[in-house]
Design a protein that fits this description.
2 copies of one chain form a homodimer. Chain A has 127 residues and is mainly alpha-helical. Chain A is 65% helix and 11% strand. Chain A has 2 domains: 62 residues, Orthogonal Bundle (Arc Repressor Mutant, subunit A); 53 residues, no CATH class. Chain A has a 3-stranded antiparallel β-sheet with strand order 1-3-2. The two termini of chain A are 27 Å apart. At the A-B interface, helix 1, helix 4, helix 5 and helix 6 of A face helix 1, helix 4, helix 5 and helix 6 of B. Chain A binds a DNA duplex (30 and 30 nucleotides) through helix 1 and helix 3.
Chain lengths: 127, 127
DNA sequence: CAATAAATACGAAGCCCTTCGTACAAATTT
DNA sequence: AAATTTGTACGAAGGGCTTCGTATTTATTG
């Protein structure tokens, strides 16, 4: 179960946009990617075509251009990455990942109380 | 700061062994890797040579064979991965990573109290 | 001494990902 | 009608990682 198909870094970048925008054109995706780094239009297009082959998204022809929609859920992809990092980097200990992340990160008061609330919920569900 | 040099999956596998064993020979590393998957001796050797070039480890000739030692700290590598996943997969929200990891994972009572303790510590340090 | 064993070194193949250049098609503009 | 624009499709180059085969060296063993 561990090794689901993981999107590459570029694919992830595009998935983030698809998750945010819903269904969109290559042009729209490309514009957003191009804001962050230098990249040719056909590069974005090609990656999106490959993503379609891999089943990360579908596309529909509407007029002249294609409109793409993500087929994978953000949460599932996130979980895949968590799984990988826990096993490959934290020797299987999810709690180590959690604690080290918390340790690196200055949490705000709001975040801390949210976290505490979440833990309480965990405790209740456990019983 | 974000994009430190990240070891590949194979390199990570070997780093785990070096971290655990301290200074060891290729033979020893290879035996441990070979327990988990099919791999030729020269493959392990090659990866360790490349890791040395990249600065992940050093080696010392002792008699006939080389003894390798990790040069990078486990914690630093872990943090690099956390950083990457937070930015690429969780849109920069470390707390989202934490909560989702906790949600996926059945924590024991012991782990939960450890976590709570850690959070208290965070709160104190924050003030 | 010859053969075997134990190591390292090196190079090349295969695969995947990224990146573009170029070609092609259809519509729009001049 | 010709030229430009807007899109898609495709192929190939380049780089990195993994993998192994082969060569080489040195020591050990028969």
């Amino acid at each position: 179960m561990n090794q689901r198909i993981k999107p590459t870094e570029s694919e992830l970048e595009i998935l983030q946009i698809l998750w945010q925008e819903g269904t969109t054109s290559v042009k729209c995706v490309h514009e957003k990617v191009a804001l962050k780094r230098d990249i040719g239009y056909t590069t974005t297009l090609k990656i999106m075509q490959i993503m379609t082959e891999k089943g990360f998204c579908t596309r529909v022809l509407e007029g002249k251009s294609h409109y793409y929609t993500a087929l994978v859920k953000e949460e599932d992809i996130q979980n895949g990455f968590i799984d990988t990092i826990v096993n490959q980097v934290f020797q299987g200990s999810a709690m180590d990942l959690v604690i080290q992340t918390l340790g690196n990160y200055k949490a705000s008061n709001t975040e801390i109380s949210e976290l505490k609330q979440f833990i309480e919920l965990m405790e209740k569900n456990q019983k």
